[in-house]
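Subject: Sanity check before I submit

Could someone independently write out the structure tokens for this chain? I want to compare against mine line by line before I put it in a report. The sequence has 138 residues.
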Amino acid sequence: MSFVGTRPEVTKYVEKYSDYMYATLLIPAGLTSYSSINYKDEDEIISEHLKDNENIDDIYVNYILPDKMKYNIEYIEKFSFLYDIKIMFKTFLSVFLGGKIMKVSIGVVALNEEKTLPSLFEDFKLQTYPHGKIENYL
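---
Independent answer below. Compare away.
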């Protein structure tokens, strides 16, 4: 385990991974990541959907997991010591100053969609961030 890295999911969620999501299992698990920062209050998202009488597992699989996977795959693509330092700094800010550091979009990519990594990140950039410039938000 390292300080920064993708967070492993519970086995019942890993079983629902599409092919591109399995790449997140290749990186050593970490204590923090962008998905951990952005979803430290995921219970609030789940609570919002519970009002619509949805099942907790369905809410997680359909709304939270796809977005977490986008952050995890982005981490794999940008893997470097400096990127880890950036994540550690944002973790510090998130824990000690509160709030969400990055904009979170829920459910942009469905789990059963077949995407290649380049097309996944084009969708991610276009649908999550205005003007497709992730760097402005990191």
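---
OP: Matches mine. For the report I'm noting this point. The CA atoms of residues 40 and 100 lie 8 Å apart.
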